[in-house]
User: Which sequence fits this backbone?
């Protein structure tokens, strides 16, 4: 399987609290939740539905897993009009959680990956199938990129600047070159950017500056 990620971010890179509930994630005093709600058009909604539908499994960090389990794990089809493919995929496909503290997951079909995460994910990727998908899970996504385990990364960039909140990429971190596979903008200004990791960036070699002499 290929390991793919899909993340909603603001123009300034914030991913915290994107969902419909403003109370979803209040860590560190964050009070601007729900910023992605209603921002995308029908074409982008269809893309998200299709993405979830084609997943063979899902990989989560613990925080995102608990948010998803508390929502998608308890909702019925009638609760999420227009998002039925997402609901059905999340509740019918295998789910894996990277956690050393979660011991008794309540969401059916969940496996906890607590030992040697890199080896466990490599084993999952070696299985036949299409995609092992990561949604949200910023800490996990950064770790996967750092360890060369991501095959493709999709960013849904919402046209808003928050000025606060946890960002997908921290101020200091490993560098990574990306190949742009696809880019499009929907009718509401949301851009869909699909990238594949391409090793480390190449930086120009510093050229010694000539020193002036005075007589």
Assistant:
């Amino acid at each position: 399987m290929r390991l793919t990620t899909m993340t909603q971010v603001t123009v300034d890179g914030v991913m915290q609290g994107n969902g419909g509930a403003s109370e979803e994630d209040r860590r560190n005093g964050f009070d601007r939740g729900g910023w992605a709600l209603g921002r995308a058009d029908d074409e982008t909604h269809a893309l998200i539905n299709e993405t979830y539908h084609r997943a063979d499994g899902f990989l989560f960090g613990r925080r995102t897993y608990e948010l998803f389990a508390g929502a998608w794990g308890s909702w019925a089809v009638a609760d999420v009009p227009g998002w039925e493919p997402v609901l059905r995929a999340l509740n019918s496909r295998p789910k894996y959680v990277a956690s050393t503290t979660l011991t008794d997951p309540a969401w059916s079909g969940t496996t906890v990956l607590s030992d040697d995460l890199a080896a466990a994910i490599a084993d999952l990727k070696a299985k036949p199938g299409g995609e092992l998908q990561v949604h949200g899970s910023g800490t996990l996504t950064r770790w996967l990129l750092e360890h060369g385990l991501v095959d493709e990364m999709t960013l849904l960039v919402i046209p808003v600047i928050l000025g606060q909140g946890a960002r997908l990429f921290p101020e200091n971190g490993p560098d990574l070159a990306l190949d742009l596979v696809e880019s499009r903008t929907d009718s509401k200004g949301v851009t869909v950017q699909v990238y594949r990791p391409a090793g480390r960036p190449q930086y120009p070699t510093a050229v010694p500056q000539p020193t002036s002499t005075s007589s």
